[in-house]
Amino acid sequence: MKRISDIYDKDFSSYTSLPSLDHTIGDGVVLGGERVVAFGMVKCYPEAIIIIDQEISLRDRVESLKILYKNAIEVCRERRFKEMNAVIHNDRYGKLLAKHFNFRELPGKLMQVRIEE
Question: Which side of the chain, N or C, has fewer Cβ within a 10 Å radius?
Answer without folding.
Answer: C
